[in-house]
Amino acid sequence: YETLLDRVDQELGKSWAASQSPFFLGTETPTLIDLQFISHIERMEASVIYWKGVKMRGQGRENLDRWLAAFDERESYRATKSDFFTHVMDIPPQYGYAYADGSNPRVRDSVDFIGGGSYNYPKDGARPSTTDMKAASWTLPIPNYDQDSWEPIRPPFHVPEEAARHEAVYELTRNYDDVVKFACRATGDEGRPQYSAPLADPFALANPADREDVDLLFRMAATSLLRGGTLPQFDASQIPRERREALARCVKYVRDRVGVPRDMSFPAAQHFRGHLNHLVGILADPAAQEAAREREALG
After folding, report:
1. Which of 159, 282, 169, 281 is nearest to 225 (CA)?
2. Which of 60, 70, 167, 251 is the most buried (most CB within 10 A)?
3. Prediction pTM value
4. What is the pLDDT of residues 47-76, one digit of tens each?
């Protein structure tokens, strides 16, 4: 892998030396070669970070970095670019399941960061489990503005946090009824047939009994996203445990299925995931949330 990337970097260096072009054939704009290659490189970058803990950018391959940055600068490319989580979730059904490098301690960090902790760390290089979607690192404030993070929001994609939050609200509200119904699939019938993609269940049926409470939770998230600075708070300790777990599953169901760029941009998706994950935290452990509120009140 490293050797082949070095060769790619060398080829790109030839066109840069000849014409100061970042693209393969020395042109001002991408050619078919660039367009064919970027779709695979984009998926490769996500995969090697997530499964192997290895970064592609910033590793001394200046020509490859320049080529990737040139694509990032293009609005037409940004409109189609997925985030790493979307890629690593939709790649296995297409290419086969990947396996983590259990010998690399950085893999635990990359899996937790990119997947929001949604998937258990795969033990002994096995496939990850979807049984514990706790999203340990989809937290607020979102960590992706750190350019040294596993998946930074790079300057061409950077928008003010308020704009990202408002985009998330817009995309949520313009399909609001369908999103709430979609969330209620988590407690409904799984439907048949099922697919190998762990997050794909197009024939699942929503449970209408949960709609009213799920609607309230998503309204809380939308209000917080609009206002900024204040996260939704409520006392969940009086809600029976089984009920809290059911509602948490509904919120997680949407949180883990936000697709980039299908549903919204990467910055908006991270804010949306973070706000939904905050609600999951309240439902999962109301005592801890109450203690946190008391600490905050005491300063």
Report:
1. 169
2. 251
3. 0.88
4. 999 889 999 999 999 999 999 999 999 999
